[in-house]
Specification:
By secondary structure, this protein is an alpha/beta fold. The chain is built from 10 helices and 15 strands. The strands form 3 sheets. Strands 1, 4, 5, 6, 9, 10 and 11 form a 7-stranded parallel sheet that branches. Strands 3-2-7-8 form a 4-stranded mixed sheet.
């Protein structure tokens, strides 16, 4: 079973209007509300690929119920730890430029944290767990070291979608996959990476530190998979960019779902690129039909 862990989920409230006038009343043209959070996005895309999975993390209040109701409607099972405070709302304003206002999320008590640890401690070597996104403020991202370490003791594989120090901290647990973008990779090493050769060089350093597979996403410039066996470049696909939110999560879902099934890293990479690209060209997370259509356009070449 694939599990997704979202420590600080959200309702993503998407607001669309032509232009935001600061200090004035603004009237939106349209809006949408989605169950959000990186791990939850992974769960939703996995389900669209026909892959059963279970979402966990912390949830609370009427906003949390919206998320669990949404997952239930989409046929996604969940086992969240319920907390007293409301799950956060993140406002994403799509106007002449994109603006995000993200809530801080609830405080998590030590008792509730132990409940989540108990869930993770019950997993087995047949499971794969996706850890993604930020943690509630009172826990801090360092909590991931405890949770990932606990998970790995069960024999389960872990996928870690973080950036910066949190990503580096995860490498001692030999994650199945990490997926920084080219800018995040450069920031880790204090470098500005401008060529594929440079990106591959520093991705290999991430591999040397413990990761089993490294995907570097490069937005409109394609993506790079680096493994012990070789490096593989996915050519960019042209299209109308509609949505940067969830594209990386979709890529993680595609790779993880396919790899758990086939153990073929290149095939999994191709699936991940298809999912990420399809979401980029969609208003919400990509549909199964659009992912299938996009998959046929993915070209991967060994470097």
């Amino acid at each position: 079973m694939i599990y997704t862990v979202t420590l600080n989920p959200s309702i993503d409230y998407i607001v669309r209007l032509d232009k935001v006038l600061i200090g004035s009343v603004n009237r939106m043209d349209s809006d949408d509300k989605f169950a959000g959070g990186k791990g939850i996005n992974v769960s939703r895309v996995l389900k669209r690929l026909g892959i059963d999975n279970k979402a966990t993390g912390f949830i609370g209040g009427f906003t949390g119920k919206f998320i669990t109701d949404t997952l239930e409607e989409e046929g996604i099972s969940s086992h969240f730890v319920e907390v007293e405070d409301d799950t956060r709302i993140n406002v994403k304003i799509k106007a002449d430029s994109e603006t995000e206002i993200n809530g801080p999320g609830p405080d998590i008590s030590s008792l509730k944290l132990e409940e989540l640890k108990s869930i993770l401690a019950s997993l087995t070597a047949d499971d794969t767990v996706v850890f993604a996104g930020s943690s509630p403020k009172n826990l801090g991202n360092t909590i991931y070291k405890d949770l990932i370490g606990l998970t790995r003791k069960t024999g389960a594989q872990v996928v870690c979608d973080f950036e910066g120090q949190t990503l580096l901290d995860s490498l001692e647990f030999e994650p199945l996959l990490v997926k920084p973008n080219n800018h995040e990779l450069g920031d880790i090493f204090g470098m500005k990476l401008e060529s594929l050769d440079e990106i591959e060089k520093y991705a290999r350093q991430i591999l040397d530190k413990g990761a089993q597979h490294v995907i570097i996403s490069m937005a409109g410039d394609g993506a790079l998979l680096v493994t012990q066996e070789g490096a593989y470049f996915a050519k960019p696909i042209k299209g109308n960019v509609k949505n940067s939110v969830g594209a990386g999560d979709s890529m993680v879902a595609g790779f993880t779902g396919e790899f758990v099934k086939s153990k073929d890293a290149v095939k999994a990479f191709k699936r991940g690129v298809a999912c990420g690209t399809a979401t980029t060209f969609s208003d919400d997370l990509a549909t199964a039909e659009f992912i299938k259509e996009t998959y046929e356009k993915v070209e991967v070449e060994k470097r």
